[in-house]
């Protein structure tokens, strides 16, 4: 498994010094940035986050034992905003904290959240920029959490080469196989600020990856494997593309 993580963690186009800034370290950095950002939020934006969490649509998505996506359209932000983080980013950060012992929480003891902040990886120079960065990040996070359950013997030399090249269809296939290998549980995939990857240079890959994720949610629900997959997507303004990617998603407009 470590060899696979190292492969996904590298970028053939990046210098060795940049490669050393690996995904686990970046997750720690991202979390620290979100913590600092939260400290700058005024009471009103924090109330806004509380309002989201208490919406019936959010609770339905969160508590129901069903694979389903929720799209949160942040109507207070627009697609031209240059702010890497928003109150919705901080909400995702709060979601990542260890669960309380609230008997309501669906994820207690069996579920785990994983997150990717598009706004923090919005530069083409970033090692994890773009839709393939989302896939690589989630795959590594999932392997770190569930690697002891996953049989990776199906990966042949061609597959390894394609993963090293960050070939999107191969990354998608690996993510799907990991999902089927997890067994019983709940997986929350939080993608904050997908609007960052809807610009001309990225939209084709973003559409490919988001549509794949939408299809995977439907597959997991139809097959009833024991794993519940719950993506949460935040976006700026009203996002028509997100509705096409996830036609059966719950939508919130805040």
Can you describe this structure?
- With 254 residues, the protein is an alpha/beta fold.
- The protein starts with a helix and ends with a strand.
- It has a five-stranded parallel β-sheet with strand order 2-3-4-1-5, with helices on both faces.
- The chain has one domain: 3-Layer(aba) Sandwich (Rossmann fold).
- The chain is built from eleven helices and five strands, in the order αααααβαβαααβαβαβ.
- Helix content is 48%, strand content 13%.
Q: Mind sketching the topology for me?
A:
Layout: H1 2-8, H2 16-19, H3 23-40, H4 43-53, H5 56-63, E1 70-74, H6 87-95, E2 111-117, H7 131-146, H8 157-164, H9 168-182, E3 185-192, H10 203-223, E4 227-236, H11 240-245, E5 250-253
Parallel strand pairs: 1-4, 1-5, 2-3, 3-4
CATH superfamily (homologous) name: P-loop containing nucleotide triphosphate hydrolases
Strand content: 5-15%
Question: What's the β-strand tally?
Answer: 5
- Estimated radius of gyration: 17 Å
> Class, according to the CATH hierarchy?
Alpha Beta
Count of spatially separate domains: 1
| CATH architectural grouping | 3-Layer(aba) Sandwich
Number of separate helices:
11
Helical amount among residues, as a percent range? Answer: 40-55%
Unreliable residue stretches: 12-21, 103-109
The CATH topology turns out to be Rossmann fold
Mean residue pLDDT: 84
Q: Record the strand order, biggest sheet.
A: 2-3-4-1-5
Distance between the termini: 41 Å
Sheet of most strands: 5 strands, parallel
Instruction: Give the overall shape.
Output: globular
Order of helices and strands: HHHHHEHEHHHEHEHE
Query: Pairing-aware structural class of the strands and helices?
Result: alpha/beta
């Amino acid at each position: 498994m470590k060899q696979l993580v190292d492969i996904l963690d590298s970028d053939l186009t990046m210098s060795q010094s940049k490669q050393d800034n690996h995904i686990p370290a970046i997750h720690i950095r991202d979390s620290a940035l979100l913590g600092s950002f939260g400290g700058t939020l005024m009471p009103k934006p924090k109330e806004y986050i509380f309002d989201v969490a208490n919406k019936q649509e959010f609770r339905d998505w969160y508590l129901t034992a069903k694979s389903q996506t929720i799209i949160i359209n942040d109507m207070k932000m627009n697609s031209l905003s240059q702010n890497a983080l928003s109150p919705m980013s901080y909400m995702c950060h709060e979601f990542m904290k260890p669960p309380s012992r609230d008997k309501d929480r669906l994820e207690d003891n069996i579920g785990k959240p994983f997150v990717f902040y598009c706004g923090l990886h919005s530069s083409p120079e970033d090692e994890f920029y773009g839709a393939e960065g989302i896939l690589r990040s989630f795959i590594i996070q999932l392997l770190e959490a569930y690697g002891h359950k996953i049989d990776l013997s199906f990966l042949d030399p061609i597959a390894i080469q394609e993963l090293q090249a960050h070939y999107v269809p191969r990354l998608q296939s690996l993510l799907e196989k990991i999902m089927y290998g997890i067994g019983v549980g709940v997986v929350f995939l939080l993608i904050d600020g997908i609007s960052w990857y809807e610009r001309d240079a990225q939209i084709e890959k973003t559409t490919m990856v988001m549509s794949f994720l939408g299809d995977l949610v439907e597959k997991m629900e139809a097959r009833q494997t024991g794993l519940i997959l719950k993506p949460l997507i935040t976006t700026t303004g009203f996002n028509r593309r997100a509705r096409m990617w996830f036609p059966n998603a719950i939508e919130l407009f805040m």
